[in-house]
Design goal:
Shape: flat
Helix content: 25-40%
CATH topology of one domain: Arc Repressor Mutant, subunit A
Radius of gyration: 47 Å
Distance between the termini: 129 Å
CATH superfamily of one domain: Winged helix-like DNA-binding domain superfamily/Winged helix DNA-binding domain
CATH class of one domain: Mainly Alpha
Length: 379
């Protein structure tokens, strides 16, 4: 009697269709009716995202539109720290689920706009253009006042898809200064007169509701929608071209022999650095550049073979990288290491032309007292 039985779980397991697995997780799926968020398996089982990034992606999807999802806002809402949240957001941004862009508002302020896409891979695929439906044009109804005219004007053969002509004309509506041009009898009567007919008269006939010409031309056929331009950047930025191997100023036979011997001797100290003959010939100029800069062979060997990755699949590529990136600068000369001497300018002694006393001055002349007495005597 002390062990409590969960009858609800037992009943739920009995309702699971099919035989239950002998091991592993058993899913009891109860459909949601409210307060749920749809999450794709491409996110829940993404191999390149950490569990924290997947969790924050689910939490961000469950938030309503307009909710702040910055690092500080999420740290105030959830128990995780700011460093973990910032790392998770960077992972989502690298994959493409999260985008952050700085935009300028009309008032001049710069803000950060954050966009979350639940399927970034779908943005990279072109969208299918909607099938274009031909536009069907109907003649305007005689109800609006703009289509009310005294009488219909006879028209040529009807165009395709005309609407039926109303049998009863609408009551006339006075049109100032333009009504006489709409009557065909008046136009024929005005022909014998010397006055020429006004030019805009033929232009006013198309608005009649009873003629097919009154309908404006159908809109032009829209071209197929262009392919969708993806807004999500590629997951990885393009890699820069590899740096060239260092070359010595002068590859003498002695330097080449010492470099090839050092590379061939690496397998004696580290068996995983067994190189082929072609690899030794390609890497020998770089080792010669190190020897030319007076690097000791033991130092070069230690730099090249220290702490290699495990397992080491491409020793030649690792040596090429280390020879290029870790190249030391040339040793300074004796004149480069000499401490510069500070020169002190000494003002020489001069003999006064008036009193024969010695005083310091860059130029010969009189001393200060003689210059003062001379100035007072001149005044």
């Amino acid at each position: 009697m002390d062990t409590q039985q969960n009858t609800a779980l037992t009943r739920a397991l009995a309702e699971v269709p099919g035989p239950l697995p002998a091991r592993g997780v058993i899913h009891v799926v109860i459909p949601h009716t409210d307060r749920f968020t749809v999450v794709g398996n491409h996110l829940a089982q993404h191999p390149g995202l950490s569990t924290a990034a997947v969790g924050f992606a689910v939490r961000i999807q469950s938030l309503p539109q307009g909710t702040e999802i910055g690092v500080k806002a999420l740290a105030a809402r959830f128990p995780e720290g700011e460093k973990l949240i910032a790392s998770a957001l960077r992972e989502l941004e690298d994959i493409g689920y999260l985008q952050r862009a700085r935009i300028r508002l009309p008032d001049g302020r710069i803000v950060t706009r954050t966009v979350f896409c639940n399927q970034p891979a779908a943005l990279l695929r072109p969208r299918k253009a909607a099938p274009h439906q031909p536009a069907t044009w109907q003649a305007p109804s005689p109800a609006p006042p703009a289509d009310r005219h005294p009488s219909p004007v006879p028209a040529p053969a009807p165009a395709p898809m005309p609407q039926p002509v109303p049998t009863l004309p609408l009551p006339p509506e006075p049109v100032p200064a333009l009504a006489p041009t709409l009557q065909p009898a008046q136009v024929l009567a005005a022909a014998p007169q010397p006055e020429p007919a006004p030019a805009p008269a033929p232009e006013l006939l198309p608005p009649l509701a009873t003629t097919p010409e009154c309908a404006p031309a159908p809109p032009p056929q829209q071209s197929a929608a262009p392919l969708f331009v993806p807004l999500v950047p590629p997951p990885t930025a393009p890699k820069p071209p590899p740096r060239p191997l260092p070359q010595p100023c002068e590859l003498t036979p002695e330097l080449h022999r010492a470099a090839t011997a050092l590379l061939a001797d690496l397998r004696r100290h580290s068996p995983e650095f067994t190189l082929t003959k072609d690899d030794i010939q390609q890497l020998a100029p770089a080792v010669a550049a190190w020897l030319e800069r007076e690097a000791r062979p033991d130092t070069i060997r230690h730099v090249l073979t220290n702490d290699p990755p495990q397992p080491l699949r491409h020793p030649a590529k690792l040596l090429r990288h280390r020879l290029t990136v870790l190249l030391p600068p040339p040793l300074p000369g004796a004149h480069d290491l000499a401490v510069p001497v500070r020169r002190v300018t000494v003002t020489p002694f001069q003999t006064c032309d008036g009193c024969e006393r010695a005083f310091r001055s860059p130029m010969p002349g009189r001393c200060r007292d003689c210059r003062t007495d001379h100035a007072q005597a001149a005044a």
